[in-house]
Specification:
By secondary structure, the chain is α/β, with parallel strands linked by helices. It folds into 2 domains: 2-93, Translation factors (Elongation Factor Tu (Ef-tu), domain 3, Beta Barrel), CATH 2.40.30; 99-206, Rossmann fold (3-Layer(aba) Sandwich). The protein is 18% helix and 35% strand. It is built from 6 helices and 16 strands. The chain has helices spanning 73-78, 99-102, 117-124, 142-148, 166-172, 186-199, and strands at 2-15, 18-24, 36-39, 50-53, 56-58, 63-69, 86-93, 106-112, 128-135, 150-155, 162-163, 179-183, 202-206, 222-224, 236-238, 245-247. The strands form 3 sheets. The protein has a 7-stranded antiparallel beta sheet with strand order 4-3-7-1-2-6-5. Strands 11-10-9-8-12-13-16 form a 7-stranded mixed beta sheet, sandwiched between helices. A two-stranded antiparallel ribbon has the order 14-15. A hairpin with a 2-residue loop joins strand 1 and strand 2. The protein is globular. The mean pLDDT is 95. The chain binds flavin-adenine dinucleotide and FE2/S2 (inorganic) cluster. FE2/S2 (inorganic) cluster binds next to loops.
Length: 254
């Protein structure tokens, strides 16, 4: 993990308020699927970096691709970056998905909305992935995913695929898998935890929380865990350092 000034190789708007940003970095070959970057604002008033997942890596170009939604002032500032400009980043951060352990198994990658991006590079590291992706209405990254991988789609308004949420698509299409890797809103992760328990398969969830230091020092991003931590004797884990990926059974998603 290191902090450096990255040069913008490309940036484009890919849907309403959704951007794809490609950055030239020195650590592209160190990235593990499911890790993220802390991206710093150039505005001194916003001291804390914004965590954004790594969506893709190009080892030949030495670049990483981030796909993000404008949520506030930080991400709005990033959306103005143009090729050739620079931005400070720290990374790669977090643990990532357990791709080595499940490489040859049937892995169901479940993404909800802006949780979909880290699953794209994760899928590229697996031999037999299947996607279930859920959108409100407008899609993004869908062509990248469905061109390469078996993909099942849900939209809330029924404009594409199954009408409803991503679990509705999983049930409607009868998708079978050995293990689930998921990233998306907490209600989706909670529902998937229940679903995987009933189906008797393991489920790993990538969690999001507001972050401060991003490296495990400030306890600004803790989530409740089921078991007590052996050192601190509290039922907490740091999403930035211990996660963002957890076995769903280990975290309290209520
Ligand atoms: C590990 C991790 C990976 C992430 N990956 C992505 C990604 O790939 N693409 C993407 O678009 N976003 C991602 N996020 C969320 C992203 O970090 C926030 O949207 C961003 O920090 C908002 O910054 P801002 O200055 O634009 O908005 P702010 O003004 O800081 O906040 C605007 C709104 O967003 C909410 N918000 C802020 N931070 C978070 C957060 N971490 N999680 C949930 N809601 C938040 C605030 O409560 C507020 O309502 C990720 C978050 C984490 C923790
Ligand atoms: S953001 Fe500081 S410990 Fe996670």
């Amino acid at each position: 993990m290191r902090k450096e000034t990255a040069r913008v190789a490309a940036q484009e708007s890919i849907a309403t308020d959704i951007y794809s940003l490609t950055l030239r970095v020195s650590f592209a070959d160190e990235v593990k699927p499911g890790q993220f970057l802390s991206v710093y604002s150039a505005d001194g008033a916003r001291l804390l970096p914004r965590p954004i997942s790594i969506c893709d890596v190009d080892l030949n170009e030495g670049t990483v691709r981030l796909v993000y939604r404008i949520a506030g002032k930080g991400t709005a500032e990033f959306s103005k970056l143009t090729p050739g400009s620079c931005i400070d980043v720290l990374g790669p951060l977090g643990n990532g998905f357990p791709v080595e352990e499940f490489r040859d198994q049937r892995v169901l990658l479940v993404g909800g909305g802006i949780g979909i991006p880290p699953l794209y590079c994760t899928a590229k590291s697996l031999s037999n992935p299947v996607f279930a992706v859920g959108y409100r209405s407008e899609t993004y990254l869908l062509r990248d995913i469905s061109d390469r991988f078996e993909t099942h789609i849900a939209t809330e308004d029924g404009s594409l695929g199954t009408k409803g949420n991503v679990l509705d698509a999983i049930r409607a299409d009868g998708i079978e898998a050995d293990v689930i890797f998921a990233c998306g809103p907490k209600p989706m992760l909670r529902a998937l935890k229940e679903y995987s328990k009933d189906a008797g398969i393991r489920c790993f969830v990538s969690m999001e929380e507001r972050m401060a230091c991003g490296v495990g020092a400030c306890l600004g991003c803790v989530t409740r865990t089921v078991e007590q931590d052996a050192h601190s004797f509290v039922k907490n884990a740091r999403i930035c350092k211990d996660g963002p990926v957890f076995d769903a059974e280990e975290v309290d998603l209520t």
